[in-house]
Amino acid sequence: MSGPTKSLLFTAIALTAIIIGAAAAFLSKVDGATVPATVRAGAIGFGASLTLFTAVLTAYTVV
Questions:
Q1: d(CA 22, CA 32)
Q2: Which domain holds residue 38?
Q3: pLDDT digit string (tens) for 6-52?
Q4: Which of 17, 38, 52, 62 has its CA 20 to 30 A from that of 44?
Q5: How many domains does the chain have?
């Protein structure tokens, strides 16, 4: 896979992780969580999805 393709794919992965984190934070806030708990839920959603997507991208480029 070429360099620009990897960069574009990683940018899409990062934006998707941001959207997932924001959705997790929003759902947490709607559920009645406090602000610190909302931030924590968003950070966990972002970090988990970014880790998963990056692992999949790495496995795809190795194969």
A1: 16
A2: 3-62
A3: 899 999 999 999 999 999 999 999 999 999 999 999 999 999 999 99
A4: 62
A5: 1
